[in-house]
Amino acid sequence: MVYLSHLSISIMSLVMMGYIRTVTGHRASWATPTYIVLESLSVVACLLLSAAIMGMPLVDPEITASLGEDAQKDDRVTLFQWITFSWVNPLIQLGFNKDLQDSDVPPLSLTMRTEQVFNSLLAISQPKIDAEGKKQPVPSLLRRLVRLNAMDFFLDGSLTCVSVFCNYAGPYLIKRILDSISDPTPETKARAYIYAALALLASLGKAEADLFHLWHGRRESVRVKNQLVAIIYEKALKRKDFSGVVGLGEQKSKDDAKDKNKAGSKDGKGVDKKVGKKGGKEAKKPEKNVADTGRVVSLMASDTTRGKPSCL
């Protein structure tokens, strides 16, 4: 950002010198030959330094080497590949040549896998103790999700504003270009060129903002979904379902009542004490057949989030 700021200032200075010379017909008093040479060298130096930084990886190569196979393509990209999303080109080319299979799609990055995001959520879900020794209440789920995904939420909202601004800047600049060329003069022509350059920058900025907005929007969607699904799974796997026990007791009471009526009709007395006593005991103490959580988890069978099995 520092190099880009210096580059923008130097280019604006050179453009201003050219605009003044076009409008007035002579060079500005402050535009000395030394100043022009220094600004030109500043532009060249900033371009070279920016190109060098564009070729550097976003993640330390030692970290990606230590991760091994867990480091995916989006973890090994350079800044230029990240800005242009050129690291997706091999997958797009493969999909152009043949139908993609599940094995062709690379796994998710570690920053979006269920195990990692859920461990991060558990880390901030533990109750904290203040200086007085009192246990502080755990923040609500919404606050924890916002805290973990604050950067994605901020970038998503900021890039949306940038995209909307660039979207409306295009027609506005085109209108100014048409107004400038309707009465052609050296000054209006120079302004038209400036407006055309700004319109090009607005189009490029909108395209880039939409790319990053889509990426961070999808990323925050996947992370939040994984966190919520992992919380549901954790609660489901810790909970016992006793509804099967209640149903079992009611069914045994009905069966015992039927047996008692049959026995009473046989001996003519209407009640078989042995069967009635046994039936009463079984009705009061049903078998401890606690239903497993498989039935609860099966309700989530439609979940297709891809995560490591160790998260369960």
Question: Which features does this protein show?
Answer:
single chain, 12 helices, 69% helix, mainly alpha, 312 residues
Please state roughly what percent of the residues sit in beta strands, choosing from under 5%, 5-15%, 15-25%, 25-35%, 35-45% or over 45%.
Answer: under 5%
Percent helix, as a range, is 55-70%
What is the helix tally?
A: 12
Number of E strands: 0
Largest sheet: none
What is the H/E string?
Answer: HHHHHHHHHHHH
Q: Work out the radius of gyration.
A: 35 Å
Overall 3D geometry? elongated
Gap from first CA to last CA:
42 Å
Mean pLDDT: 76
Structural class: mainly alpha
**pLDDT under 50 segments (min length 5)?**
268-291, 302-312
Account of the 3D structure:
With 312 residues, the protein is an all-alpha fold. 69% of the residues lie in helices and 0% in strands. α6 (114-125) crosses α9 (186-238). The chain is elongated and about 110 Å long.
Quick rundown:
This protein is mostly helical and 312 residues long. Helix content is 69%, strand content 0%.
Strands, helices and their partners?
Elements: H1 2-24, H2 33-54, H3 61-67, H4 79-84, H5 89-97, H6 114-125, H7 141-148, H8 150-182, H9 186-238, H10 243-267, H11 273-284, H12 294-297
Helix pairs in contact: 1-2, 1-9, 6-9, 8-9, 10-11
